[in-house]
Amino acid sequence: MQDVTDLPFMRLLAGYGGPDLYVTEYFRVTPDSCLDAATLRSITENETGRPVIAQMIGQDIPALLRTARELERHPVAGIDLNLGCPAPVVCRKDAGGGLLRQPERVDEILRALRGTIQGRFTVKCRVGYADKAEFPRLLEVFQKHDIQMLTIHGRTVRDAYKTPVHPECVAMAVQAMTCPVIANGNVVDVPTGAAYLRRTGAAGLMIGRGAIRNPWLFAQLRAHWEGRTAPSPGRRDLLEYVHRLYEETAAFHRSPCPEKQVQKMKRYMVFISTGIDEGRFEHRIRRAAAEDEFFSICREHLDRDEPLPVRPPVESSVFCGFSALD
Ligand SMILES: Cc1cc2nc3c(=O)[nH]c(=O)nc-3n(C[C@H](O)[C@H](O)[C@H](O)COP(=O)(O)O)c2cc1C
What is the 3-state secondary structure (H, E, C) of 124-137? Predict the structure, then answer.
């Protein structure tokens, strides 16, 4: 995830169990782009012990081919094309989720990339641009090319993050595709992860925001499937996680001053603080400016022996619609 799942975050996550496979933040691809140095470090310095796939976003075919070749000179487990980003600035340029409006263009891009990428080629998509009725046509296009994995964020681009996911679309893709299909969107705990797999038959889950909020989530899911006792972190464990995230990301990005680092932490805290103390933690942390103020708010809400809320509240503005997965 852009500006979030960078190398220090991947490292930290690995310490809590981590996923089986990582995907980088996307590399922006334009006719004159070059590989972003910080994102490249997620590949060249990946010490998680798990493979990492490099993701690209763009629509210019020669530039995508050049970038894929450059990326394949590094130890990547595959190259992924982003067909899901809903950011208006991206969609206006017919990249990311914007490309889903043009299945013929997607067809052309996939053909060119498949002809160039030597190793694994994977796609991340949504279930349509404006309507999930577009999805069968998109699946026809994806099926034509020898892709090794299709990850589906089960919403349309227009849905952004506001609606429940559509597990029936992911289930349709599982039936249609010969490659593994990965279900994504609103997995926040073990029941939502288990339900998404049960309702779709997907080969696996991709987890984004839920893992920022709860880095133990991968270990909890593994424990569930292996019949072991799952880790049940408390508030103090979350406080320690916030401290480590602060230190690791500050060191990596060489934060020029603590105030900047506090602002950077807010990208993570939106997800971490949600649902704790009826929104008071989130409200206060949004307004923190200085480092000591930031940590004092964190201590006030987290420095005690109490279990964490298992999932965000249903009315949470950053995690909507997950209850549809139960
Ligand atoms: C801040 C942020 C940045 C994101 N950046 C990317 C990205 O670079 N590439 C990508 O494929 N998806 C990106 N996404 C989308 C997520 O990968 C995921 O599809 C979406 O958040 C739904 O899954 P979740 O509910 O598990 O978070 C981003 C999401 C957020 C919230």
Answer: EEECCCCCHHHHHH
